[in-house]
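Supplementary Methods, section 5.1.

A reviewer requested that the exact input to the structure prediction be made available. We therefore reproduce it here, unchanged from the version used in the analyses.
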Amino acid sequence: MKHLITGATGNIGSLVTHRLIERGIRPCIFVRDEAKARELFGGAVDIRVGDLGASQRSLAAAFAGMDTLFLLNSGPDLAARDRVAARAARTAGVSHLVKLSTLDVLSGVGTGPWHAQGETAVQESGLDYTFIRSAGFMSNALYWAEAIKTERVLRSSTGDGKIAFIHPADIADVAVHALTTRDLRREAVVITGPKALSYAEMADVVGSASGKRIRYVPISDREARFGRDAYAEAVTDIWRAIREGRLTTTTDAVQRIIGRAPYSFEQWVTENLDEFIERGRTRGTRAQS
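The structure derived from this sequence is encoded cell-by-cell as follows.
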C-alpha cells in the first residue's frame, strides 16, 4: 500500500508520517516546502511538491500511484478544497481517503459546517472514506503559553465550560490505523480526550506541573477575539459553545480503535512544559517563587 500524507510538515501530519516510518512503511508526502520536509524526515519519505489549492488536474497528477490519502484541509474554503482533492484522488486511482474532520460537524459549531460540507464532497466522490471527527487539540493550549509564562495568567471567554481536548498523538494513531487497515472504512469516528476540563482546571494542571500558581481570568468574547475574519468568528463561536456547556462530549473511540486509553491533558503538559516556563530557570527555582 502506498500512503500519501498531506499537511506532513504540520502538527498532525508530521506525527502520522513519523508513525508510518516507525512501522517500516515509506510514505509519500505532499508538501509545499521540500527543504522543510527533508529536515523533518530525511530520506525516509518520498516527496511530492504542490499545494492543495491547486487544480484538480494538478492534484490528480500528484496523487497518482497512491492507494490511500490522508487529507488535512483548513480554512473557510476547505469544503471546496476537499471537493477538488477528493475528485482528483478518484481520478488518480486512490481507493481510500482519510479526512481529518471535527466533532463540531455534529453540533454545527465553529468550523463544523465547513467540515460537514467537506465530508459531503468526499462522499459524493464515490471514494471509500474515513472521517476522523476530532475534538480540539491539546496543542491549542500553546496559544496560552506567552501569558502563562510572563504573567502566570490564562485568559479566556469560555467561563466554567468544559471541553475534552485530545492529544495530537491520539489523532495520529487513529489516522494510521485508518490508513493501514480496513476497520474504519465508510465510518465517521468521534475521538476525544479522556476527560472534559474547564480552562480553569487546565490552568491548574499547568500550574501544578510548573510549580507556579496560574490564575484563570474570565474575559468577554470581544476581549478574547483575535481578528475579524471568518476563522476568528468560528473560534469565537467555539468559545461561546464551551461556555454554554455544549462541547463536553467524550467518547471511548480511541480505546476501541487502537486498544489504549487516550492520553491525558496532564501528560501533554508534562511533555510540553518548557513552552510554559521562563527560559533559564530551573523547576526548583520556579517552585520557590
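Residues 31 and 162 are 35 Å apart (CA to CA). These observations are discussed further in the main text.
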